[in-house]
Amino acid sequence: MIEIDNTSLSSVRAATKAILQKSNGQVNILVNNAGIMALQKLEHAQDGFEMQFGVDHLAHFLLFELLKSALLASASPGFSSRVVNVASSAHPVTSTNESGNYNLDKIKYND
């Protein structure tokens, strides 16, 4: 088992390295499952991003980017590599359409 702390991009990088070593570079399936939602107060991931955005989006995107070459190289005519992104159905009830507010630091929390 390889653990990833999605609050830390360095943890994602280390886990990716371990995955590639353990699998001899053979990766056919990646499932990204969103991890947290509805934070009651502003919290930050270890890299300074708003916690939910960092954990649910940036960490998964980095993991995919670091595994993309292995996913493509591992595909065969009989078995294509796959990436599945899982999310909740809560996205319609939120608004993050503030242009340029990518760190979500202007969101109103309940604190």
From TrEMBL:
Residues 90-111 are annotated as: Disordered. Gene3D superfamilies: NAD(P)-binding Rossmann-like Domain. One of its GO terms (molecular function) is oxidoreductase activity. Residues 90-102 have a biased composition (Polar residues). Keywords: NADP, Oxidoreductase. Belongs to the short-chain dehydrogenases/reductases (SDR) family. This is Uncharacterized protein. It comes from Penicillium ucsense.
